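About this split. The held-out portion is used to measure sequence recovery: a designer receives only the structure tokens and must propose an amino acid at every position. Recovery is the fraction of positions where the proposal matches the reference. Here is one held-out target exactly as it appears in the evaluation file.
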């Protein structure tokens, strides 16, 4: 791993997991345990037992105890996480971005309704909440047991834990204090050169607090602040997943934890799982660890909950918009022009400069290839494929920039690297700036359909296809619980 990102992390014995590895894995797999409760007891209880046994098989064994993170680093990072996640709008201590209207509604419905939440659609048919609910389930369980308002505090603390674990895991990839401090700054404020893109698209300098990342129509590679402030549900599993892969690259320990991660992450974000897949593909030592990866004790017990998760996420999936980006933009020559400009500003200049400092490692090559390929195809109303599947690859490039920034003496290329990252950081700073420019607001306490009407009064349907689906699977119809239907027809959006 020392050469993977030009870093020199503490060595990890082959097959060994330390406490931080185990906590990160447990953080990711916990929602899968709660998802087992969406099924009838005859199915849910065996699922819980199998998932628990499989997780124990993966995480058991002697604990490797590295010198880092030290208690001082842990306290410092989590104090920062408490502040930064609050500024991000999670918990509504500060201004929360518009997407939190729907995220609050998902959390609300999961807190008050039986699992899986079921809705009465226009015409009398029923729809299920079909969405990557992993991020919300632990907090929703708190809200169900205590009160819906308690889920708001719970999701804040849950996000703090995830962001703090990611920063600890990332800093652990580096050996010196200087590199770790730089790592914290880079990961917190990393982003593409959206300021230049916005100036090109609108012929103006973006104002403070302005959301500037949609400068290219229908495609976005989000900065880390945008990801945390808007979509922590997608970002946290991608960040934790890629740091675990990089730390255990080509080691037997990666094969050991892969069944757990492959089961857990899709319930958080299937698109983040797609972005992680190439790194798993090349990070595993297949010839050596094939038996470990597919051993009956570690792989097979995860299979039932993993398959049911994918079956659930795939319900009515054909209703989600998708197609070639060239068709959306009209002509191939317009696509080529926009494609080159987008790639250069979002990651291309950074990747070219990094090539001056180090030979491209396998993770860096994968990252560049993935980022080059994603703009060709769109999936989702807002092209969620590009926004979410790009997260692991962008994180790899961000980590690759840490070691060169820490080097001395410096030359012109160091200045260019710092300049590219500074432009990205200035663009990313628009997100925290908005927290101090706009007033905080409290969760509306409304269901998803009422919240859709609130956020999009012009919407034709209150049941967008990326959140709702018909129960089109006979298997799931037999195995899932059927709680009381939520009748939202008389609910007002205000």
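Reference sequence for scoring:
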């Amino acid at each position: 791993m020392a050469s993977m990102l030009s870093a020199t992390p503490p060595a990890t014995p082959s097959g060994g997991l330390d406490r931080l590895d185990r906590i990160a894995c447990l953080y990711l797999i916990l929602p899968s345990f709660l998802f087992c409760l969406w099924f009838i007891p005859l199915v849910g209880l065996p699922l819980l037992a199998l998932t628990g046994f499989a997780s124990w098989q993966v995480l058991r064994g002697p604990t490797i105890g590295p010198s880092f993170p030290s208690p001082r680093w842990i306290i410092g990072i989590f104090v920062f996480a408490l502040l930064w996640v609050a500024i991000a709008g999670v918990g509504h201590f500060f201004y929360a971005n518009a997407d939190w209207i729907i995220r609050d509604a998902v959390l609300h419905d999961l807190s008050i309704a039986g699992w899986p939440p079921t809705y009465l659609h226009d015409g009398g048919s029923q729809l299920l909440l079909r969405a990557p609910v992993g991020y919300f389930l632990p907090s929703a369980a708190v809200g169900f047991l205590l009160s819906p308002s308690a889920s708001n505090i719970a999701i804040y603390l849950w996000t703090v834990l995830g962001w703090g674990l990611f920063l600890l895991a990332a800093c652990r990839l580096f050996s010196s204090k200087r590199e770790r401090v730089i790592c914290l700054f880079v990961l917190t404020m990393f982003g593409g050169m959206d300021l230049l893109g916005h100036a090109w698209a609108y012929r103006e300098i973006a104002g403070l607090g302005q959301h500037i990342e949609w400068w290219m129509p229908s495609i976005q590679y989000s900065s880390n602040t945008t990801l945390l402030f808007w979509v922590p549900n997608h970002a946290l599993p991608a960040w934790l997943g890629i740091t675990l892969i990089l730390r255990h690259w080509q080691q037997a320990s990666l094969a050991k934890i892969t069944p757990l991660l492959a089961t857990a992450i899709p319930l958080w974000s299937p698109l983040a799982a797609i972005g992680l897949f190439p790194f798993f593909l090349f990070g595993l030592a297949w010839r050596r660890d094939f038996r470990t990866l597919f051993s009956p004790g570690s792989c097979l017990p995860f299979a039932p909950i993993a398959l049911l998760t994918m079956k659930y996420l795939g319900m009515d999936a054909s209703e989600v918009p998708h197609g070639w980006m060239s068709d959306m933009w009209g002509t191939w020559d317009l696509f080529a022009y926009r494609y080159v400009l987008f790639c250069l500003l979002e990651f291309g200049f950074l990747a070219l400069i990094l090539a001056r400092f180090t030979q491209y490692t396998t993770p860096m090559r994968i990252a560049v290839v993935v980022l080059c390929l994603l703009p060709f195809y769109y999936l989702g109303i807002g092209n969620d494929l590009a926004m979410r599947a790009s997260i692991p690859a962008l994180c790899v490039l961000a980590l690759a920039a840490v070691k060169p920034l820490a080097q001395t003496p410096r030359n012109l290329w160091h200045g260019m690297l710092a300049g590219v990252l500074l432009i990205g950081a200035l663009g990313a700073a628009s997100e925290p700036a908005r927290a101090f420019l706009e007033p905080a607001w409290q969760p509306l306490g409304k269901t998803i359909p009422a919240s859709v009407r609130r956020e999009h009064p012009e919407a034709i349907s209150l049941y967008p296809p990326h959140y709702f689906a018909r129960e089109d699977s006979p298997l799931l119809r037999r195995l899932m619980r059927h709680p009381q239907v939520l009748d939202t027809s008389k609910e007002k959006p205000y």
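Annotator remark: Residues 30 and 138 are 8 Å apart (CA to CA).
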